[in-house]
Amino acid sequence: MNKSIFYHAGCPVCVSAEHDLLNLIDPESVEIIHLGENKEKLGDAQAAGLKSVPALVTPSGNVLHINFGAALSDLQG
Amino acid sequence: MNKSIFYHAGCPVCVSAEHDLLNLIDPESVEIIHLGENKEKLGDAQAAGLKSVPALVTPSGNVLHINFGAALSDLQG
User: Fold this and answer.
1) Is the ipTM of this complex over 0.90?
2) Of chain A residues 37-56, which have a CB less than 8 A from chain B?
């Protein structure tokens, strides 16, 4: 099975969601990407359909936007 | 460990999120409540902090609103 990818930006909403999700999902099955520290991944995230963080991209390619921390556009530039 | 509760209302966004989440989380650890068919649960959902569906209430009591299907107020009355 492909891994899920959890995108976040270090905001309190992101950290809270990350903590909760990783209690529910096998941590081995999730790759975690901090878009604030890895801006070169913004293109991948947008291509996957990400609009905001935190969000989980599932192995089937669906994007689950979880609560709302920051818009992707706020992380650019 | 307490169960998580996944609240939904049968909308396409809800069903898609449910399908994806249940592939990632042990189905035994999640209770699923259809608020459209169980309106008597709306009070519990609001008390938990739910604003919209689909949403997952984690064992620690945090509410993860996932994407956006419907506002809770649309399910009332």
Assistant:
1) no
2) none
